[in-house]
Amino acid sequence: xxxxxxxxxxxxxxxxxxxxxxxxxxxxxxxxxxxxxxxxxxxxxxxxxxxxxxxxxxxxxxxxxxxxxxxxxxxxxxxxxxxxxxxxxxxxxxxxxxxxxxxxxxxxxxxxxxxxxxxxxxxxxxxxxxxxxxxxxxxxxxxxxxxxxxxxxxxxxxxxxxxxxxxxxxxxxxxxxxxxxxxxxxxxxxxxxxxxxxxxxxxxxxxxxxxxxxxxxxxxxxxxxxxxxxxxxx
Length: 234
Description:
- By secondary structure, the protein is α+β, with helices and mostly antiparallel strands.
- It has 6 helices and 12 strands.
- The protein has a 5-stranded antiparallel β-sheet. The chain has a 3-stranded antiparallel β-sheet with strand order 1-4-9. Strands 2-3 form a two-stranded antiparallel sheet.
- The protein starts with a helix and ends with a helix.
C-alpha cells in the first residue's frame, strides 16, 4: 500500500509543478503584453476575469458555470473607470492578478469592426490587394475577427453600409465603440484557445485607418457570406 501511495505522489508532483510553471509563464505573458499595449500603443487596458480549474475543467472566475465569455469579460461593473493608459499602473494591476485577461475599451483610442473570420480573411485579402491601409486585426478562438479603426466608427458604420446598398440588420458586421471592449492577445477564452493577432501592432500601422477606408471590402465580404447562407437554407 505504501508503495502505491509513493508512486501516486511521485506522478502528481511533476504535474503540479508543470501546471504552476505554465500558469507563471501565462501570467508573465499577460503582464508583458498589458504593459506594452499601454506603453507602446497608448491603449487603455483593464483586467477582466480569468480561467480557473474546477473539477478538471476550466471555468470562468466569475463563478457562473454557464458564462457566455469565460475568462474574457469585465470582472467589475465599473470597468470603464478601471481602465488605465499608464504602463506603471498596468504592471501593478497584473502583478497582483497575473491571470486576469487583458481587455481594451473601445471608443477611446480606437473602435473595432467585428465580422466572422471567413468574411474577415476574405476582406483582408482584398484590402491587401488594393493596397489600402490596415490597422491591427485580432482573430478570436470563437472565429471572429476585429479590425481596429479610428474612434467614431461605431456611429457611422450603419450609414456607410446603407450607402453601399446593404441593410445593416441583415449582415454579420458589428461596430464596437464607446461603452464596449475587446479582448486582446494573449487572452484565453474558455477552453477554445487564445485571442491572436491576424495583423500585429507595428510601427507601420500605428496610424489607424478610418472606417470609410475599410467598410467596402468588409461589407462586400459579409454580404457574400449572408447571400451564401440564404442560398444554403433555400
